[in-house]
Amino acid sequence: MLRFITLNKLIQHIILGLALFSAHSWGAVIxxxxxxxxxxxxxxxxxxxxxxxxxxxxxxxxxxxxxxxxLLNALQSEQTLPAKTIAITFDDGYENNITAAAPLLEQxxxxxxxxxxxxxxxxxxSYVMTWYELRKLAKRGAxxxxxxxxxxxxHQKLDDxxxxxxxxxxxxxxxxxxxxxxxxxxxxxxxLAYPYGEFNLKLQELVxxxxxxxxxxxxxxxxLTSDFTRLPRFPASGIYSNLETLKTKLDTKAxxxxxxxxxxxxxxxxxxxxxxxxxTKDFHNTQFACYVSGVGQATLVWESKDSVRIQTPAxxxxxxxxxxxxxxxxxxxxRYHWFSQPWVIxxxx
Length: 349
Fold this sequence. Notes:
Blueprint: H1 2-22, E1 24-25, E2 27-33, E3 35-36, E4 45-46, H2 48-60, E5 64-65, H3 68-76, E6 81-82, E7 85-91, H4 96-108, E8 113-116, H5 118-122, H6 131-139, E9 143-146, H7 163-185, E10 191-193, H8 201-209, E11 213-215, E12 222-223, E13 234-235, H9 243-250, E14 257-261, E15 266-267, E16 273-278, E17 289-292, E18 296-297, E19 299-304, E20 307-311, E21 319-328, E22 336-345
Parallel strand pairs: 2-7, 2-13, 3-4, 5-7, 7-8, 8-9, 10-11, 15-22
Antiparallel strand pairs: 1-6, 2-12, 14-16, 16-20, 17-18, 17-21, 19-20, 21-22
């Protein structure tokens, strides 16, 4: 009888442990918005009604909306997060962020981050918030962070500019912007949201040397093995604002990667390739699939059971493209792993 009771308690402890584990996660999702408006470019906008529907779904379905600094600190220190954790971010600091977005976010009690361009604020551009308005939001709990001085393509060299000169100029841009945010807001979190979501390896190296976290606009979840010089976010504006497709993205998981290899994300190669090396796998190789924006399914070559090479079957056009890779989770049916590789195709130098 005693042995039966002991076994019964052991089973109860195992069930409790599994329940507690399922209530925590090693990853999260970061959402990216620009405008909350029906009067501005649809490609970067979401209406107040649609934005409210996003927030309502998040609230009613048990998501844990966390301040971005708390989320990133947890991942960097390898702490588990509550299950279904997300962060909400905005780029550019548009005026409608305070008039339309902030009241709704505060109504739902959700924290959020706004990435701003200090030089444009100093120049009093009419379409961005003032420092006074940003200070008001910061006092109400918003995180204000760096989006470069004036939204330049940071990876691009100027005509006849050397690599050393480029590094010095971009370093000055980033550090000056950090200082201005510190002076005006009082905090200067070590984050840089890349303008236009574009970055190359040299810019990533500079961001790392400056002790910053680089944040893009390519889709995917974040996890322990994410590269903190190129963290993904799911765009949730424009064509990506559809709640039905957003629901799936909110539940995505990050692939556990050992490393990845590619020549550079800004390239003149119109058929670039990337090789992913998985640390652990919670999916079947046969269910792993990648899609190329504007092209269709990517060509996959499994070089080993844990490494796959991905390439477009057709040439990519000039400008921005992506490879989006997904696979259904074995351990958590109904959820998908998601990885995105952004490319910027440029003219041959």
